[in-house]
Request: fold
Amino acid sequence: MTDAVDTKHPTYIERADEWSLMRDTTAGEKEVKGAGTQYLPQPSGWLPSLQLRSAMKSMVLRPCGI
Reply:
């Protein structure tokens, strides 16, 4: 017999993204910015060029409140 549980309750599946968001936001700014475009979407109109990726990176690295 194995101890692995391969199934997840439907409510768990439904709420997993919300819990992940709560964990990341409670962990702080570094965690949110570290998730990249998961929480900080790339502004529309920006093409995936090296220069624009650099600009997006500088926006993410900017401290809060600036």
